[in-house]
Amino acid sequence: MKILSCTQQKQADAYTIAQENILSINLMEKAASLLTDEICRRWDKSHRIIIFAGSGNNGGDAVAVARMLFLKNYTVEVYLFNITGVLSDDCMKNVQRLQECGFPNYHEISNSFDPPQLTKDDIVIDGLFGSGLNKPLSGGFASVVKYINASQATVVSIDLPSGLMGEDNSNNIRQNIIRADLTLSIQLPKLSFLFAENEDIVGEWKVLDIGISKNFIEEASTPYFITEANEIRQLIKPRSRFAHKGNFGHGLLIAGSYGMAGASILAARACLRSGIGLLTVHTPVRNHDIVQTSVPEAMVQNDVHELYFAEPVDLDNFQALAIGPGIGQEEETALATFDQLKECFIPLVLDADALNVFSTHRNYLNRIPKRTILTPHIGELERIIGRCNNSFERLTKAKELSAYLQCYIVLKGAHTVVITPEGNCYFNQTGNPGMATGGSGDVLTGIILALLSQGYSQENACRIAVYVHGLAGDIARNRVGEISLTAGDIIEALPEAWKNITETK
Ligand SMILES: NC(=O)C1=CN([C@@H]2O[C@H](COP(=O)(O)OP(=O)(O)OC[C@H]3O[C@@H](n4cnc5c(N)ncnc54)[C@H](O)[C@@H]3O)[C@@H](O)[C@H]2O)[C@@H](O)CC1
Ligand SMILES: Nc1ncnc2c1ncn2[C@@H]1O[C@H](COP(=O)(O)OP(=O)(O)O)[C@@H](O)[C@H]1O
Ligand SMILES: [K+]
């Protein structure tokens, strides 16, 4: 699914109206009818509905919802803020329609606003500003926002919480943005919904398909996408009936150090559960027995060092390489990692400490082979690129790094994003907070290694792995709950996740 900018959303509305022979007022009516259905499904008539509308089309949507709810016998009050004395055409038409049906509780505010008492049972519909917001809210609007936010009422925002920009909120004023419990987004989600710091502002969000031109959306160019199950399903290659293990590649995992054998075991197990033909784990001498016993399906190759990775490996017999889980931060390990990069002509994943080494050796960044996959969490990324003030800035800088290195970056988090060297960003929707536990990232590295070994392109390996990793996390949550979930549970759920995504739906 694409994510378009607010400007593109406006163009999409205009294109739909012009090309698909639909009047703008009817498009608004469709939006309002879906919004009303959603509200009625969640709240019955015992709740008072207080609607705050602005002078633009977001306000128009809100006023149309007021009429629809009123005609369904809900108790509705409307406060329309018409400070400039100018309403958009469709907003004005909806005010007329509201009055024509004998609506009693309409208040138009041009200067002073006497706010109603809001209680915890009230439902506030926020239709002050939508995609037309052009600067942070201030003055009277900021006061209205603060008053709504201070109330106990449940807040439903139309399209996006008033005051929130669709993409970049770096210069926004957080106190002056509505904090919604539910955001009903028109046609497509907004980029800012996917950022952790906006969780309390956006609340739960849902997209309503009002019938904006599919042609326009298909043609529109955007770097931002949300990956959907059917896309992943189509990327997975079927296995030939005559397949043998040689068809699915031999991967090498350089992982573990003394005291962190677990990371190598988790990554290896996940890798073996994700279709690899053969797996070799390269690990220090002291970890040999534990890896051998814990993952009997894998071959174990000893490093020269007793305790950590200290010497690069000959890669002639491998189709893909992952370095990092649990390798630790010894200087010798860092040097072995850099040497390994020089010799690496096969698809490569760098994770965890194999990324941390670059924070202290930035001049070695240029040694990373093109098309390598880097899998940092926020902390690991910022050790390389420096502290960022917000998610948009972090995403922008990660895109720059990806383009500069010509590498793939899998920036891990609640909505893990796969960033390609061409600048595309694929956000993930699977996964849950139960996965915020040590070792979950090692599992992801193992899955990516398995896919690279099987010949998947870097981009597809990242997108499939991230999706399936989250899906397995969701299955594990159903089994054990978020609190008890461990990285091992994600691995145990991988078979069901792979079955789910490969079975034809
Ligand atoms: N026909 C259409 O175009 C459709 C529009 N829709 C709705 O229309 C919304 C977009 O409508 P508009 O483009 O009218 O934009 P908005 O309703 O978001 O607001 C636009 C008005 O607010 C003013 N404004 C912007 N920032 C401000 C600020 N910081 N302080 C004070 N005033 C400010 C603008 O000058 C303009 O007058 C969408 O979010 C969606 O809810 C939907 O009904 C779908 C159909
Ligand atoms: N709230 C969340 N929702 C979805 N996925 C999450 C959440 N928290 C963590 N994850 C996933 O769990 C993994 C954690 O990886 P990482 O931070 O590298 O852990 P570790 O280093 O302990 O293995 C990432 O893939 C991340 O996307
Ligand atoms: K709004």
TrEMBL record:
<feature type="binding site">
    <location>
        <position position="441"/>
    </location>
    <ligand>
        <name>AMP</name>
    </ligand>
</feature>
<feature type="binding site">
    <location>
        <position position="159"/>
    </location>
    <ligand>
        <name>(6S)-NADPHX</name>
    </ligand>
</feature>
<feature type="binding site">
    <location>
        <position position="377"/>
    </location>
    <ligand>
        <name>(6S)-NADPHX</name>
    </ligand>
</feature>
<dbReference type="InterPro" id="IPR000631">
    <property type="entry name" value="CARKD"/>
</dbReference>
<feature type="binding site">
    <location>
        <position position="263"/>
    </location>
    <ligand>
        <name>(6S)-NADPHX</name>
    </ligand>
</feature>
<feature type="binding site">
    <location>
        <position position="126"/>
    </location>
    <ligand>
        <name>K(+)</name>
    </ligand>
</feature>
<protein>
    <recommendedName>
        <fullName>Bifunctional NAD(P)H-hydrate repair enzyme</fullName>
        <ecNumber>4.2.1.136</ecNumber>
        <ecNumber>5.1.99.6</ecNumber>
    </recommendedName>
</protein>
<dbReference type="GO" id="GO:0052855">
    <property type="term" value="F:ADP-dependent NAD(P)H-hydrate dehydratase activity"/>
</dbReference>
<dbReference type="GO" id="GO:0046872">
    <property type="term" value="F:metal ion binding"/>
</dbReference>
<keyword id="KW-0067">ATP-binding</keyword>
<feature type="binding site">
    <location>
        <position position="442"/>
    </location>
    <ligand>
        <name>(6S)-NADPHX</name>
    </ligand>
</feature>
<feature type="domain" description="YjeF C-terminal">
    <location>
        <begin position="228"/>
        <end position="501"/>
    </location>
</feature>
<dbReference type="InterPro" id="IPR004443">
    <property type="entry name" value="YjeF_N_dom"/>
</dbReference>
<feature type="binding site">
    <location>
        <position position="162"/>
    </location>
    <ligand>
        <name>K(+)</name>
    </ligand>
</feature>
<dbReference type="GO" id="GO:0052856">
    <property type="term" value="F:NAD(P)HX epimerase activity"/>
</dbReference>
<comment type="similarity">
    <text>Belongs to the NnrD/CARKD family.</text>
</comment>
<feature type="binding site">
    <location>
        <begin position="130"/>
        <end position="136"/>
    </location>
    <ligand>
        <name>(6S)-NADPHX</name>
    </ligand>
</feature>
<keyword id="KW-0511">Multifunctional enzyme</keyword>
<dbReference type="InterPro" id="IPR030677">
    <property type="entry name" value="Nnr"/>
</dbReference>
<keyword id="KW-0547">Nucleotide-binding</keyword>
<dbReference type="InterPro" id="IPR036652">
    <property type="entry name" value="YjeF_N_dom_sf"/>
</dbReference>
<feature type="binding site">
    <location>
        <begin position="412"/>
        <end position="416"/>
    </location>
    <ligand>
        <name>AMP</name>
    </ligand>
</feature>
<feature type="binding site">
    <location>
        <begin position="57"/>
        <end position="61"/>
    </location>
    <ligand>
        <name>(6S)-NADPHX</name>
    </ligand>
</feature>
<comment type="function">
    <text>Bifunctional enzyme that catalyzes the epimerization of the S- and R-forms of NAD(P)HX and the dehydration of the S-form of NAD(P)HX at the expense of ADP, which is converted to AMP. This allows the repair of both epimers of NAD(P)HX, a damaged form of NAD(P)H that is a result of enzymatic or heat-dependent hydration.</text>
</comment>
<keyword id="KW-0456">Lyase</keyword>
<dbReference type="Pfam" id="PF01256">
    <property type="entry name" value="Carb_kinase"/>
</dbReference>
<keyword id="KW-0520">NAD</keyword>
<keyword id="KW-0521">NADP</keyword>
<keyword id="KW-0413">Isomerase</keyword>
<comment type="function">
    <text>Catalyzes the dehydration of the S-form of NAD(P)HX at the expense of ADP, which is converted to AMP. Together with NAD(P)HX epimerase, which catalyzes the epimerization of the S- and R-forms, the enzyme allows the repair of both epimers of NAD(P)HX, a damaged form of NAD(P)H that is a result of enzymatic or heat-dependent hydration.</text>
</comment>
<dbReference type="GO" id="GO:0046496">
    <property type="term" value="P:nicotinamide nucleotide metabolic process"/>
</dbReference>
<dbReference type="GO" id="GO:0110051">
    <property type="term" value="P:metabolite repair"/>
</dbReference>
<feature type="binding site">
    <location>
        <position position="58"/>
    </location>
    <ligand>
        <name>K(+)</name>
    </ligand>
</feature>
<dbReference type="Pfam" id="PF03853">
    <property type="entry name" value="YjeF_N"/>
</dbReference>
<keyword id="KW-0479">Metal-binding</keyword>
<comment type="subunit">
    <text>Homotetramer.</text>
</comment>
<feature type="binding site">
    <location>
        <position position="326"/>
    </location>
    <ligand>
        <name>(6S)-NADPHX</name>
    </ligand>
</feature>
<keyword id="KW-0630">Potassium</keyword>
<dbReference type="InterPro" id="IPR017953">
    <property type="entry name" value="Carbohydrate_kinase_pred_CS"/>
</dbReference>
<comment type="similarity">
    <text>Belongs to the NnrE/AIBP family.</text>
</comment>
<dbReference type="InterPro" id="IPR029056">
    <property type="entry name" value="Ribokinase-like"/>
</dbReference>
<feature type="domain" description="YjeF N-terminal">
    <location>
        <begin position="9"/>
        <end position="218"/>
    </location>
</feature>
